[in-house]
Write a structure and sequence with these properties.
The complex is a heterodimer of chains A (280) and B (315). Chain A has eleven helices and seven strands. By secondary structure, chain A is mostly helical. Chain A has two domains: 46-139, no CATH class; 142-275, no CATH class. In chain A, the strands form three sheets. Chain A has a three-stranded antiparallel beta sheet, sandwiched between helices. In chain A, strands 1-2 form a two-stranded parallel ribbon. In chain A, strands 3-7 form a two-stranded antiparallel ribbon. In chain A, strand 5 and strand 6 (220-224) form a beta hairpin. The longest helix of chain A is centred in the first third of the chain and has 25 residues, at 47-71. Chain B has 315 residues and is an alpha/beta fold. Chain B has an eight-stranded parallel beta barrel with strand order 1-2-3-4-7-8-9-12, surrounded by five helices. In chain B, strands 5-6 form a two-stranded antiparallel ribbon. Chain B has a two-stranded antiparallel ribbon with strand order 10-11. The relative contact order of chain B is 0.15. The chains are: A mainly alpha (280), B alpha/beta (315). Chains A and B meet through helix 1 and helix 2 of A and helix 3, helix 4, strand 5, strand 6 and helix 5 of B.
Amino acid sequence: MRTSNPAHVGDLPQTDFMSGPEDGFHRTFCAALMDQDPRAYPAGLDGRAARRFAIYRNNVHRGLQDALAAAYPVVKSLVGDTFFYRLAGDYIRTENHRPPSLALYGAGFSVFLAGHAVVATLPYLPDIARLERAWLEALHAADASAITAASLAGFEDRLALLRFFVHPAVRLVASQFPIHAIWQANQADRQQAEQQNNGPAQILYRAEAVLLARPYYTVKLVRLEGAGVEFARQLLAGQRVGAAYEAALAEDTHFDVTPVFAQLLASGMFGAFTLGQGGG
Amino acid sequence: MTALQTNLNSCNDLNHPQNRIFKNVPPSAGLPRRAGVGFKAEHASDVFENADPVSWFEVHPENYMVAGGPRLKMLSQLREKFDISLHGVGLSLGGWEPLDKAHLAALRALVDRFEPAQVSEHIAWSGHEGKYLADLLPTPLTTASLRHLVDAIDQVQNAIGQRILIENPTSYLALPQNSMPETDFILQAARQSGCGLLIDVNNIFISAHNLGFDGRDYVDVLPADLIGEIHLAGHEQDADTSDNVLIDTHSRPVSDPVWALYRRLVERIGATPTLIEWDNDVPDWHTLAREARQANAILDGLDATAATFSQRAAS
């Protein structure tokens, strides 16, 4: 980062003009806002105006950093506010995706984290970011009704033939780290409960996957592990229950499908079902 | 009868055909000429129980440009009970690029679904070449800029099928290429596009302080027939006290000189829908309602003989 005199970024046109140079104005202004040097300003501004350019810069940086902080509270809680805002400051310079809503800002944060030196000490951080992103997408996904166990009454003898249409809010995030346990341990209400009871919950070091569903207006998380992940993945891909079960068995011959299927059904992940014909 | 027909049938104060280039855009329904506030989810239970003295709410459409979920559900509940205004912060009307088609379509979808009494946007830009900047950045006050702005407003009005209001910016600095006064710029933008004005009195006060002009001169040249809504908000002194600059923080009660400037404006133009904006360090509902009550008291105290909107529209 440069720490010398405030930098002039590009050249600002000085007079009124017809068309082309206006594009130069916006580009120059934008480049100065995103410059590494916090004292950078667009050329053409005099001393006082150049100093006040920092107000726009602060607004822009703080606005985008706050949006990222709102979208990734667990990542923020894991690395602390100060470091998070440093990460966010670097991220906003790389982010070139314009979301329709600021609520969905930060789609590329997990990829950014995966390429950052922070993964040397917190290797699970990108996967936590993926989980938080999935949570946000599930929250704002299209509304639809979900089926329950009762919806399957009368089909008990043909469960293996059923094929499901997945609810639009459903996301599946798999990791080699215990992302569900880490996420749970960093929920504000969870932390409060722990302070009142017996200290932090123990986090087992194991691979976990999380299935997210939002049948009504609250996002639900289902922890999956082992062959249960493959079973869910097959159902998400539109496979019949029987074929999904076989794929899971191929991974683990002791796979117990009943509790996993009940859990998935109760999560509200299925919007509808059909009796599958042919194919997988 | 659709909301649009109601709009067309109602005697609308903003529909002055004079000097319009685009005459085919119907006016909006218009908000109650009372105090409204920006809607905050944390006030939801108070608002749904008893919103008195607030009779309408404003939201940023960008916060609702999502496919579904709890936000849209809450906005539906709000709309069932109140008039709402969609106040955009992301169309980048003052930018130099074509408007984002997806953003425009998302706005159109919200207008169709929620039938807002008013739609407004800023004279500002908030992104360039794919970079989203989440702020209201200054538009050069030039003839080229003006032409671009008028085209952009026209596109929005045609896309959503109704007249919009555009809001005067907050200024921290004067761009070197500015070639006309801001009042000329916004009045010409309104006259040429057929849109109305949303006058943010706090912005005028801040700009006047920061750039060194008299806010009363600005307020006094604004034509009554163009003003469809007023914004009031709090501001703060910059943390760097070596430069005496005010920041538009929306984090405080409306200041006394801003109330005075507001009174000066409405005494001349008549009762106008007035929004209290409080977006940071959001207070409890009681405190916000007190600000709204103060605006209503000023509107109630206006000389009954002052020009009303209907008189203006008829003249």
